Amino acid sequence: MTVDELDPLIHVPARLRVVATLAALPDGDTLSFTRLQDMIGLTPGNLITHLRKLEDAGYVGVEKIGSGVASRTSVALTILGRAAFTSYSAALRDLLTGPTPPND
Amino acid sequence: MTVDELDPLIHVPARLRVVATLAALPDGDTLSFTRLQDMIGLTPGNLITHLRKLEDAGYVGVEKIGSGVASRTSVALTILGRAAFTSYSAALRDLLTGPTPPND
To answer: Which of A18, A34, B40, B73 has the most neighbouring CB atoms within 10 Å?
Structure first.
């Protein structure tokens, strides 16, 4: 097991929080940008930056619906993003329990 | 809940692995530097750097016993380090399960 196993894209605390929040939604559900921001407590600029990185990796889908004051930006985890979070969580849980110490 | 809750000293993957490995030892047990290095797969220089940071924070105790070829460096988690890892793990487990989505 190497130290590189934890997906660095997800390991950054702010992005981990974004991904975990989206992963907790029922399949197919989305969150509005504003609601996600409220839940996570990031500034809009910060959240946009992190979402863009996750979107570039194909982990998150961001969709703008409507225009002007009636517009709403919805955010959801993609299938790839959900799979990445699942393996990240499993790797982390393994790591937290620690390896079996050798007998010496 | 803010994004700053995860102890940044422990969150770095290499240090997380060091701390988790030491936390898995029975209370009072130590690991030799060499054995720890084998288990974690870091270069000696890298491991020394990370151990120094953890030692400076009071999370890890490093003790050199003997001298010359017979010397052995033993590494263990301090009480403070164990407490820090426990709260880090709890924060992380909470985070992995995600918040309850609001009704809106």
So the answer is: A18
- Do A96 and B20 make contact, defined as CB atoms within 8 angstroms? yes
| CA A90 and chain centroid, separation | 15
- pTM value is 0.84
Number of domains in chain B: 1
Reference A14, options B49, B95, B80; nearest CA is B95
Report yes or no on B38 lying in a domain.
yes
Q: Decide: residue B27, CB within 10 A, 0-12 exposed, 13-18 middle, 19+ buried.
A: exposed
Determine the residue of chain A that is closest to B89 in CA distance: A96
- At A22-56, the pLDDT tens digits run 999 988 899 999 999 999 999 999 999 999 999 99
A40 contact residues in B (CB cutoff 8 A): 3
Task: Give B41's contacts in chain A (Cβ within 8 Å).
Answer: 1-3
Per the CB < 8 Å rule, is A23 touching B100? no
Of A1, A24, A98, the CB nearest to B24: A98
Question: Does residue A81 contact residue A54 with C-beta atoms inside 8 Å?
Answer: yes
Q: Is residue A104 part of a domain?
A: no
10-residue stretch averages of pLDDT, chain B, 104 residues long: 74 95 91 94 95 97 89 94 95 81 51
Chain-chain contact of A20 with B104 (C-beta, under 8 angstroms): no
Whether B103 maps to a domain, the answer reads no
